[in-house]
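agent> fetching stored inputs for the 5-O-phosphono-beta-D-ribofuranosylamine docking request
agent> found them:
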Amino acid sequence: MLKLGVLASDRGSNLEAIIQNIESGRLSAEIRVVISDHPDAQALERARQYGIEAIYLPPGSHKTNLDPKAEEGYVTCLQEHQVELVILAGFMRILMNHFLISFQGRIMNIHPALLPSFSGLEAQKQALKYGAKYTGCTVHFVTDEIDGGPIITQAVVPVLPGDTVESLSERILKEEHRIYAEAIRLYSEGRLKVEGRQVIINDK
Ligand code: GRF
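agent> prediction call returned; pasting tokens
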């Protein structure tokens, strides 16, 4: 069974969706550990409710990434838990070289927009401000290019008249919960092959 490690900074609704897919048998995987850079992240609480080991690891003094010592701690913790695939679920820090090399090709992220549009922070707000009629979400492999790794799957979500950041985010989030579990399932079945920027999805 595929061993997952989940990194989450805050709410953890994607984490919860993944857990529910596992519990219902739709996803054959096991979450070995959930790590957060915030001691009071709701994600840690959610994990513990399901009996999953949940650990706060201090990020160090850097603001946008983990400082090198902290990053080493994250990598060691994931390795000690024999994690095969790292799932970033609302993890608000950029991963640097040591992490990326240690789990090369084995890190996934979800972004609340149709990449390459609206990368970076506040993607839903960016889409609204830009006047996009459609936006969505993207699951991709993580590389050293921020929000720029090979795309595994996407879902399109309409922007409706009168939408606020909240209403749009909620509509996108429903799709996030669906496609993240789907991407992990494809990976767990050995069906994803990366060729340059393309992710080929093989039939069963
Ligand atoms: C999601 O919108 C995800 O796309 C983004 O951060 C948010 C995390 O939400 N990267 P949650 O913590 O999974 O509820």
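agent> quick read of the result: Residues 8, 10-14, 89-90, 110-112, 173, 176 surround 5-O-phosphono-beta-D-ribofuranosylamine (CB under 6 Å).
agent> awaiting further instructions
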